[in-house]
Design goal:
By secondary structure, this protein is mostly helical. Helices cover 67% and strands 1% of the residues. The two termini are 29 Å apart.
């Protein structure tokens, strides 16, 4: 397996992993050699690895070379020079053949057999515990009240009795008095009227009427005087009725207490009878259980004595076994000591021979490394010469291409795009450039500006671009974005041109135009555009731009320009991921797991589709804000091997 020259573009760690996965350790060792060489030559900050190099060097010497012999003998040598293994092999073979074989230790003594462990048994019969009887007795008497319902009803009547009130109009006795006094008053009034009239000869007079009325009123006054007397009489009757009810209630409660006292007497007698019967029951069981405990104690004593005799007999047998085993171990240890001393003496002789063999292997390795380093230096000189020739040839071709491009640009400045046909442009591309030129000319006429050659400004187009300096200066002096946008609309540009000029206005303070006059930038841009036109992939352009000496923002913008990303705002989420290299979107399984765990960042979404819709809008908005005019941060995306600053143009 010949050692190739390392390649700048190759990922050797990946090749090592793939070879190990296939079981091809020799190939993995070769890739490790090339990887270490690349690290040293390119000045990459990465550690060397040597895990599989010995398999590669072994493969160079054949399956029976000195490396295989050393490994079989327990050595850890990592490499041997091809073609130099004969002496090592012979020394190793001679060492291996003269080495004293390692004897296998054995001992002929016979270990004593341990006594069998007997199973103890006892023939005695344990006494049976007496059966625990169940004590039962007639139910206790229950108390049932005969008068509680009457007591409750009478108590409710007393407590719910209405307060005393008196209305003489409803009193029958007052009604009787009223009739009687009214009749008496009317007779007195008639008598008084007759007597007064008789004195005046039977003639009625006002005095007679007044005297008669006064007689009637006297009786009515007497009737009114009876009301307090009648009220007091009614109140006395009310109180007598209440006292009668309370006396009846007390009588019923006294009778109830008597009945309950009789019940308590019966209950006490019941409890005394039950306690006596239970005492007789418990004493009988205690006598039976006491006899059982006495029998059980005797049984346990007999069994313990019998087991003691059994255990003492086994202990005597086991003691004899331990004595015999101790003597056996002593004899075996002595015999092994004799064997070990003999082996140590033989091993010392073998180690001296192995040391001589290892020195010879180390010497052969040093000779191999010296020769290999010389061969590598010669190979690197040849590679350097080849690279210089390639660089010179590419410079010549670049100069020729630049001359063609300059001539084509001069013609395009006056509207003739035929010069680009020799550079490989199609008719449709030339027609599109011509249309762009015509549009720029119309814009130029509208703004009163002159056309500038390619590379003098930050516009678009193959052969030339309109200088928007005058319009941009006027917009910046408008005082606000609103006024500037109104001024831009009044220029009458197409929708596409309006968007381009507005982007230039918003990014003019730190936009692309600040880079275009940099000589290094122009050189790298020219080569990057050539790579795109020749069909190189985006990643090839990325690798090239990432390893230039341009500033980060220059390199970012150059990469966007070379790929035609004049409008870097992503149109879809996939474009956003491609430009930024970081999606920030959970997978559906991740979303479901966090939803199940009630995580705060997903609790407001009903399902995964709703989450995607909301996140899509948020991430696109963030992209429009943060990557405008610079959608790719090369250093954040580049692998460690690409972020170092090397030559201006690495082809």
């Amino acid at each position: 397996m010949a050692l190739d020259q390392y390649g700048y573009e190759k990922d050797y760690q990946k090749l090592i992993d793939e070879s190990v996965a296939k079981g091809d350790y020799a190939a993995a060792g070769q890739y490790q050699v090339l990887r270490n060489e690349k690290i040293d030559t390119e000045g990459i900050d990465a550690p060397h690895t040597t895990d599989y190099i010995k398999y590669y060097t072994d493969s160079l010497s054949g399956s029976s070379g000195p490396i295989q012999t050393a490994i079989a003998g327990g050595a850890t040598m990592s490499a041997t020079k091809p073609g130099s293994g004969s002496s090592s092999s012979s020394s190793s073979s001679s060492s291996s053949s003269s080495k004293t074989p390692v004897p296998e230790y054995s001992y002929n003594g016979t270990a004593p057999n341990a006594p069998d462990i007997p199973q103890y048994s006892y023939d005695g019969v344990a006494p049976t515990a007496p059966t625990i009887p169940e004590f039962s007795y007639d139910a206790a008497p229950e108390y049932v009240s005969q008068r509680q319902a009457q007591i409750d009803a009478l108590t409710e009547a007393i407590l719910g009795r209405e307060a005393f009130s008196y209305n003489h109009e409803e009193d029958p006795l007052y009604q009787q008095y009223s009739k009687e006094y009214t009749n008496l008053g009317q007779r007195a009034m008639q008598d008084t009227l007759g007597q007064v009239s008789a004195r005046t000869g039977g003639l009625a007079s006002s005095y007679a009427g007044s005297a008669a009325q006064q007689s009637y009123d006297n009786y009515m006054s007497q009737l009114a005087g009876k009301i307090p007397e009648l009220q007091q009489l009614a109140y006395g009757m009310y109180m007598d009725e209440g006292n009668t009810q309370r006396n009846n209630a007390q009588l019923l409660m006294a009778l109830e207490e008597g009945d309950f006292a009789k019940y308590q007497s019966l209950l006490n007698q019941y409890n005394q009878n039950r306690a006596f019967d239970y005492g007789v029951f418990a004493d009988d069981y205690s006598r039976q259980f006491g006899q059982y405990q006495s029998d059980l104690g005797q049984y346990n004593q007999d069994r313990s004595f019998d087991y003691g005799v059994f255990a003492d007999d086994y202990a005597r047998q086991y003691g004899q076994y331990q004595d015999q085993l101790g003597q056996y171990n002593t004899d075996r240890a002595f015999d092994y000591g004799v064997f070990s001393d003999d082996w140590d003496r033989n091993f010392s002789v073998d180690r001296a021979a192995a040391a001589d063999n290892q020195w010879q292997q180390s010497f052969d390795r040093d000779v191999y490394e010296t020769d290999r380093a010389y061969d590598y230096t010669v190979g690197r000189d040849q590679v350097a010469d080849s690279q210089w020739n390639q660089t010179f040839d590419y410079g010549v071709s670049t100069d020729d291409y630049a001359k063609q491009q300059a001539q084509a640009q001069q013609l395009a400045a006056v509207g003739d795009f035929s010069g680009y046909r020799a550079m490989g442009w199609t008719d449709s591309q030339i027609a599109a450039a011509q249309a762009q030129y015509d549009e720029d000319r119309a814009l130029q006429m509208a703004l009163g500006q002159k056309s500038l050659s390619s590379g003098s400004g930050g516009g678009t187009g193959a052969g030339g671009s309109t200088d928007y300096t005058g319009l941009l200066t006027a917009m910046r002096g408008a005082g606000s974005d609103e006024a500037a946008y109104e001024m831009l609309l009044s220029a009458g540009l197409t929708e596409s041109k309006t968007g381009q000029v507005w982007s230039m206005f918003k990014g003019s303070a730190a936009g692309a135009n600040q880079f275009t006059n940099d000589a290094n930038y122009k050189t790298v841009l020219s080569h990057a555009q050539d790579m795109v036109k020749s069909g190189k992939s985006d990643i090839d352009v990325f690798k090239y731009v990432a390893t230039t000496d341009l500033a980060q923002d220059q390199a970012d913008y150059l990469y966007n320009t070379a790929l035609g990303l004049s409008d870097p705002t992503p149109k879809t989420y996939s474009e956003y991921v491609a430009l930024t290299g970081n999606s920030g979107i959970m997978t559906e399984s991740e979303f479901n797991a966090r939803k199940k765990a009630a995580a705060a960042d997903v609790k407001n979404y009903a399902n995964y589709q709703q989450y995607l819709s909301a996140k899509y809008s948020a991430t696109v908005a963030a992209a429009e804000k943060t990557i405008n005019m610079s959608p790719v941060n090369l250093k954040s995306l580049a692998p460690a091997a690409w972020t170092g600053s090397t030559s201006l143009v690495k082809k």
